[in-house]
Amino acid sequence: MTTSPETTRVSRGRVLGLGAAGAATLFLPGCGGSDTKEKLNQSQQGTSTGGSSGGYSGPAVKLAFWNGFTGGDGPYMERLVKRFNAAHKNITVAMNKLEWANYYQKVPAAVQAGKGPDLGIMHIDQLATNAARQVIIPLDDVAKSLKLDKSDFAAAVWDGGEYQGSRYGIPLDTHPLGFYYDEKLMQQAGIDAPPETKADFEAALKKFEAKGIKNPFWMPATWPAHLMFMSLLWQFGGELVSADGKKAAFNSEAGKNALNWMLSMQKQGFSPKNVAPDSQYVAFKNEKNAFTWDGIWQINDLKKVPGLKWGVAPLPQIGSQKAVWASSHNFVIMKNRNVDQNKLDASKAFISWISQHSIDWAKAGQIPARNSVRESAAFKALPQQSALAKQISYVHFPPALPGWGDVSVQTLEQAVIAAVQGKKAPDKALDDAVSKANQLLEENAKKYGS
């Protein structure tokens, strides 16, 4: 399996790159009149304060829990749900799995029709759009009643669950890019440890070539090239958008340094040109690619490759500071028409229980969001996950802007592809993309009322 365990490569790219826009396009303007929205908002916020610490002693309820865990991570969540159900006789959680691309289309439509699930999982870059469209409700009171606060979680992950001053997601995990290396090829080249700096990284590539190991670091033209670009952009001190979120900023000097460094891998002969989708990962699995950057979700897949000696480490620091792209799964509660206090309290109990038992979720190839779980001996016994957890203090997420995902897919991703494939000069590719992104951001401001 050469794709993320979350979804197929095509839909995965649309989820982690497209963000919430795929779902947003399915929203009909104004899901009900403004008066109806206001009443729903007041009702659900006002009634979601019951319970105090994640326990539930009310009547028997059944919760519909939707997510996109259709890959190798699915069985891990299924086992957690079964354990929760066994431990809570008055709560039955029914889990429904959809491919992420379908999930982000069907959830908003179901909520609008009054047939939405009680709770679900959303990626951190989906929260702003679904909050702006009133698909999900604020969870500040949920966090308060469960006695959760920033000190319980990795700071960036906790802060990423907010939109316009309100919390819409309770973080479960984070899943960043990682630096995978072939231990056998490193030994052949006389490299003792995975390089941590730009100078050491490029010196290692030259050592591989000196030992006859050609093209040691394949640069993808598509997935996950844009995730690599964002990591490098942040490493060089750049940002995706301006501080007020109104203008795209990834064509800065930092952005151009990032993209030019990616192209330099081809120019120096470290990577072949026109690398087909997933080819860099397949090459790594077949020991034809000594280094590759990919998501933490590849850990369990690589464990299945017979005879492959490999390791994973934080991304090397190519720019002036450490930074890495990441996403995060967050629990959300849907804004359904009929408010059921018992279901809301039961949902809190479920969220609290899964969060406390997220060490078992970490085994699916994730980094727990909770500090106590991440600092436990059980997590430290997971060598690959704990290695990538070293990046937790400098993970970066896409901006919390409604519709940003759609902007990114149409602009940033296309710029990276065009440059890496040699169809446009890097500077022009970025400048053209930012010009289009600014137009889309202006349209989104009107569409989402921000």
Characterization of the model:
Helix 11 (225-235) packs across helix 12. The chain has 2 domains: 9-172 and 328-381, D-Maltodextrin-Binding Protein, domain 2; 176-325 and 411-447, 3-Layer(aba) Sandwich (D-Maltodextrin-Binding Protein, domain 2), CATH 3.40.190. Strands 7, 8, 9, 10, 12 and 13 form a 6-stranded mixed sheet that branches. The model is unreliable at 1-53 (pLDDT under 50). The radius of gyration is 22 Å and the shape is globular. It is an alpha+beta fold. The protein has 22 helices and 13 strands.
Describe the SSE topology.
Elements: H1 9-16, H2 21-24, H3 34-47, E1 61-67, H4 74-87, E2 91-97, H5 100-112, E3 119-123, H6 127-132, H7 140-145, H8 155-159, E4 162-163, E5 166-167, E6 170-171, E7 173-182, H9 183-189, H10 198-210, H11 225-235, H12 253-267, H13 279-285, E8 291-295, H14 299-302, E9 310-313, E10 324-327, E11 329-333, H15 341-356, H16 358-362, E12 367-368, H17 371-374, H18 377-380, H19 383-388, E13 395-396, H20 404-410, H21 412-420, H22 426-447
Parallel strand pairs: 1-2, 1-3, 10-13
Antiparallel strand pairs: 3-11, 4-5, 6-11, 7-8, 7-9, 7-10, 7-12
Helix pairs in contact: 9-10, 11-12, 20-22, 21-22
